[in-house]
Design a protein that fits this description.
Largest sheet: 4 strands, mixed
Number of helices: 19
Structural class: alpha+beta
Strand order of the largest sheet: 5-4-12-13
Length: about 625
């Protein structure tokens, strides 16, 4: 046993690019009190899965401030404006070391028991489960930072490895582990075993489906840079059993408190206001009327379909390619994706049982009235935000920001539902809808998959509508030809491109004079040079992005880095963003890869303590160790 712990700690220390073993002491407390024959593999698996759920300290920094920000799920400039915090990254690294160390030890313990013939009927399956989970953890680490070391798991000093090799290794691991899982094995000899698996209770049929769907995810990640490998791996996995039912979802129950099972979005000081990316995807998409989604008390606030709002060009930034920049919608959208009102609260909807009143120590969530000021501080306009629906670009608003009290109060904008903030739901790591959207994308690429692109696409939407409880609107939604603000519709058969612009009525917010505005559909230069907004792939990724909110922001970020989809607006540049120097007031109407974060920098611990390893990693990265160097599989 001593050997196992020693080798595991050495391996993970290098994989996680850390030099201290302090992080490994905690998980060794109980195992070191037992001999090798007594240590149980399932304890290490359980520790790793629960740990990766993230305690609030790590979750706030990685899941919320990095992933949800880079993945455009909420209003936050942060890394989207080029900023980076070594402490946040180190917190994630340290935790990742623990999760990987636990799962690596599980595999080593299993192998030692095999060698000694100390096995139970399910022992072989536990080893394969550990390998499957390890593949996920390694992919998460690599998708954040880039090149990592994979041979560390063999108990020797490892070499850092390029991402292509990392992904080939992970795909091979998932294939082999899935094939070796014996789904006929019963756990009847240990009825308590299920308690050591917070995701599936050691249901091996579900673990096999998860492994195969994970293989789809990782294979698709290579689609733009290594299409032959991506196709062969994807098609092989797609011919196996897949995670296609809600009961198969890989999810872990959260609980209140402050430990690894506390909700990843639970910290009160993160308002988690709706992003303008999501808002532009939601509004108009599917053609479902707000009056069909909301109680009659809201109906008077619903605006006409051809109305964009009040124009406040002296208080709301115009220096962004966000299509509704400069306007305040003084009511609710005429039509909106049915999931929007489920995921986010309408400002002032205090009787909603899922209204988020965070932070609880002030009334910012319940302050719906705010002022616009002039340069001297005098009030120009008072705005009442109750029963309105607005989202704004992140970035540097300069003087406009200091004069805009509306954007300063959390309660004036839609915020994430308390259903996801109170540590009472389940954190989803992989859901059935993702499998369907991956199959739909593969079908569009002409790969051999078990269902048509249309069927897979619509099945993905249905699975997510079921999750949100809005299935009564599914039929009308799927046949809608209405464009959202990004120029995309739902109907699979409707691929007509939107016009360059469309006319919308507005009211001057200062004079109350009515006018007609020419609103551009945004040009997404990152995808097909900006000329395509409504093809099949854009539809798929739009739906996938919406469906993954709020649980899988890392996957949303991954898709945008890989494809440039969905459309991400640029941060506002009323004043320069010092950490985003390529974006400026002369080019903000176009998109460039360099306008968006591509990765996290390696931690200072690696750079300062492991010079050789750091140099290897950066060498494989193929560019500077900064957040704008694209990963190998990302869109270039």
């Amino acid at each position: 046993m001593k050997n196992i712990v020693k080798k595991s700690s050495l391996a993970l220390a290098i994989v996680a690019m850390l030099t201290s073993c302090d992080n490994f002491d905690e998980i060794n407390t109980d195992p070191t009190a037992a001999n090798a024959d007594q240590v149980q593999v399932e304890y290490f698996i359980n520790s790793s899965i629960i740990g990766a759920q993230m305690n609030p300290d790590v979750a706030e920094r990685s899941f919320v401030l990095y992933w949800k920000t880079a993945g455009h799920q909420m209003l936050s400039t942060g890394i989207s404006g080029g900023s980076y915090d070594d402490g946040w990254s180190t917190a994630y690294y340290n935790s990742s070391a623990g999760w990987l160390n636990s799962i690596n030890t599980a595999i080593q313990v299993a192998e030692e028991k095999e060698a000694k013939d100390i096995v139970k009927p399910y022992s072989g399956n536990l080893k394969q489960v550990a390998r499957i989970w390890r593949a996920y953890l390694m992919s998460e680490l690599a998708d954040n930072f880039g090149p990592i070391a994979i041979d560390a798991f063999q108990g020797k000093n490892p070499e850092f490895t390029d991402l292509k090799t990392v992904y080939y290794f992970l795909l091979a691991e998932l294939k082999d582990a899935s094939e070796k899982l014996d789904v006929s094995v019963s756990n009847i000899s240990n009825p308590k075993l299920k308690n050591e698996d917070p995701a599936y209770g050691y249901d091996y049929v579900k673990w096999k489906k998860y492994a195969n769907s994970m293989r789809l995810r990782l294979a698709m990640r290579l689609s733009e840079v290594d299409p032959a490998k991506a196709k062969s791996e994807f098609e092989a996995a797609a011919s196996s059993s897949l995670l296609t039912d809600a009961s198969d979802n890989f999810q872990v129950q959260e609980k209140a408190g402050w430990d690894d099972l506390t909700g990843v979005m639970s910290r009160e000081w993160n308002a988690q206001i709706i992003s303008v990316t999501l808002n532009n995807l939601y509004i108009g998409l599917g053609g479902v009327k707000s009056t069909d989604l909301l109680a009659p008390s809201f109906h008077a606030s619903v605006k006409p379909a051809d109305y964009i709002g009040l124009k406040f060009e002296n208080h709301f930034t115009m220096k962004t390619n966000e299509p509704a920049a400069g306007y305040w919608l003084d009511g609710l959208p005429n039509a909106i994706d049915p999931r929007a009102y489920k995921a986010f609260n309408i400002p002032g909807d205090f009787t909603n049982s899922n209204f988020s009143g965070y932070p609880s120590w002030d009334n910012s969530a319940e302050t719906t009235s705010a002022n616009l000021f002039d340069a001297s501080g005098a009030v120009v306009k008072t705005i009442e935000a109750k029963n309105t629906w607005n989202a704004f670009a992140v970035g540097n608003w300069g003087a406009l920001g200091s004069r805009n009290g509306v954007r300063a109060f959390n309660g004036t904008m839609p915020r994430l539902s308390q259903a996801f903030r109170g540590s009472t739901s389940k954190r989803i790591f992989f859901a059935s809808w993702e499998t369907y959207f991956l199959l739909a994308e593969a079908a569009v690429k002409g790969w051999a998959v078990p269902m048509s692109g249309k069927d897979a696409y619509e099945a993905g939407i249905k699975a997510n509508f079921d999750y949100w409880g809005v299935s009564s609107h599914l039929s009308a939604y799927l046949t809608s030809n209405d464009y959202n603000r990004a120029g995309t519709s739902v109907n699979w058969s409707h691929t007509t491109e939107p016009p360059t612009s469309h006319a919308m009525n507005y009211v001057d917010g200062y004079t109350n004079a009515a006018g007609v505005a020419t609103i551009l559909y945004p040009k997404n230069n990152l995808y097909k040079n900006g000329g395509v907004k409504n093809d099949l792939l854009t539809k798929i990724i739009t739906q996938k992005f919406i469906a993954q909110t709020p649980w899988l922001p890392l996957e949303g970020w991954n898709d945008h880095r890989r494809l440039g989809l969905p459309f991400f607006e640029n941060p506002a540049v009323e004043l320069p963003l010092v950490n985003l120097p390529t974006l400026n007031s002369s080019n903000f109407m176009t998109n460039q890869v360099s306008f968006f974060p591509q990765r996290l920098k390696y931690t200072s611990g690696l750079k300062n303590s492991n010079v050789k390893g750091y140099e290897q990693a950066v060498g494989f990265l193929g560019g500077a160790d900064d957040i704008f160097t694209p990963l190998w599989w990302a869109k270039h």
